[in-house]
Amino acid sequence: MSESSLLDAHASEIDGELYWYYEYLVRKSPTKTAQGQNLFRHYVASTAEREGYLYSLSASTLGQQWSEMGPLLEKTVASFRLLPPTDTYVPPYKDPWRFW
């Protein structure tokens, strides 16, 4: 297996916003507590765009914990939504340092 592998990628429109969902594996370096060459982190993520800026939520766990943690992480990522802008919304291009 390569250093990283894309397992799934798709988009869905929810409440007029387009969300991209992806699931992938990344090879993890061995550590003192986790030896071996076939160690992977399993990631799920969602991304949405507003006014040219990308907003993402990503969650991951070790591959061997995926069967236990995966369903919870998938549910969490699937719940990611951009809230409608309010009168107090400040887009990143108007005050970029606010976001750091």
What does this structure look like?
The protein has 100 residues and is mainly β. Helix content is 13%, strand content 43%. The protein has one helix and four strands. It has one helix spanning 66-78; strands at residues 4-14, 17-27, 40-50, 53-62. A hairpin with a 2-residue loop joins strand 3 and strand 4 (53-62). The radius of gyration is 17 Å and the shape is elongated. It holds the Pfam family PsbP. GO terms for molecular function: calcium ion binding. InterPro entries: Mog1/PsbP_a/b/a-sand (IPR016123), PsbP_C (IPR002683). This is PsbP C-terminal domain-containing protein.
Order of helices and strands: EEEEH
* Class computed from helices, strands and strand pairing: mainly beta
Strand content is: 35-45%
Report how far apart the termini are: 36 Å
Average pLDDT score? 88
Write down the Rg.
Answer: 17 Å
Basic shape: elongated
State the helical fraction: 10-25%
Largest sheet: spatial strand order: 1-2-3-4
Q: Enumerate how many helices there are, as a single number.
A: 1
Assembly state here?
Answer: single chain
